[in-house]
Automatic annotation (TrEMBL):
Family statement drawn from the similarity comment of this UniProt entry: Belongs to the EamA transporter family.
Protein name (record): DMT family transporter
Segments forming a coiled coil: none
Annotated localization: Endomembrane system
Length: 298
């Protein structure tokens, strides 16, 4: 069962870019962000009611709000970047998240980071730089692709803040109710600017776009639970390997569904930061930050 949950989470995360791109043909990024949280809360709430018979909403813990802000930042910038760029671009979020967590552990929590950890982080950043550059000229980079890399970088930092909040909240809350609380307050936060900046339904209304919005909600609501349950039942090495395969699937889906150009720079950069993930997570003795750094986000 653990392997099935791990595969479900991995495949679900790999489809995020394609689903956001599909939804963007009907609504703008603000509505996509709101829908990811809104439908996620709905599906997670239903699941918890069926599983436990109740839902516990918490608001009095500071890490709930820190997590809500971090996840909101993650989705806001990720959705904008995917809308204006390539659907596979969100593969940059994971290495940025990993490096941010490593820096937070070293400078905020004063945890010792090994030379292996810094080397792995360097590989992650090299991979991000290679993918962000993608062999284009400086002029082209400044005009467009550089902007999407910056947006994905901000999204990765937000994702790291969310992971840090999960690590803190996990001491007192189960993963289901923790994510329900964080996602509900995130829904409230991202809904605030919609009346002032959103264009709403900016494209053609279609069944596929609606399906994409709903599936994004399913992924937001349930994939974190699947992954948390998988980590309890499957060895961490397997989790690290299979979980990181989502970035490879993302590239495949972007080519199959949208025929987006996959250059050798993208493939090479991806392999470099995956190598960084594996180097960071394969040692027998792993620090807690290593586990957090390997946690992917949808």
């Amino acid at each position: 069962m653990g392997y099935l949950l791990l595969v479900l989470a991995t495949i679900a995360w790999s489809f995020v870019g394609v689903l956001v791109k599909t939804a963007s043909t009907m609504v703008d990024s603000s509505i996509i962000t709101f829908s990811r949280f809104f439908f996620g809360v709905v599906f997670l709430g239903i699941f918890l009611l069926i599983k436990d018979g109740r839902v516990q909403l918490r608001s009095g813990l500071k890490w709930i709000w820190i997590g809500a802000v971090g996840k909101s930042v993650n989705y806001i910038f990720e959705n904008i970047a995917i809308t204006i760029g390539y659907s596979y671009g969100n593969i940059l979020v994971q290495p940025i998240q990993t490096v941010t967590l490593l820096l937070a552990s070293a400078y905020l929590f004063k945890e010792k980071v090994t030379l292996r950890g810094w080397f792995a982080a360097s590989l992650c950043m090299i991979g991000v730089i290679v993918i962000g550059w993608n062999g284009v000229s400086l002029h082209t980079l400044m005009q467009g692709s550089g902007l999407t890399t910056l947006l994905f970088t901000l999204a990765g930092i937000g994702a790291a803040v969310h992971v840090l909040s999960q690590r803190s909240l996990a001491r007192t809350m189960d993963s289901g109710n923790m994510n329900f609380s964080v996602f509900l307050w995130s829904t409230m936060l991202v809904s605030l600017p919609i009346p002032f900046q959103s264009q709403g339904f900016s494209g053609t209304v279609s069944v596929w776009a609606w399906a994409a919005l709903i599936l994004l909600g399913v992924i937001t609501g349930l994939s974190f639970f699947w992954f948390a349950e998988a980590m309890r039942r499957v060895s961490f090495v397997v989790v690290a390997i299979v979980g990181n395969c989502s970035v490879l699937f993302s590239i495949v889906w972007s080519y199959l569904f949208y025929h987006e150009p996959i250059t050798w720079y993208v493939l090479g950069g991806t392999l470099v930061f995956i190598a960084g993930f594996l180097i960071m997570n394969f040692p027998i003795r792993r620090r807690s930050v290593d586990k957090a750094a390997a946690t992917a986000t949808a």
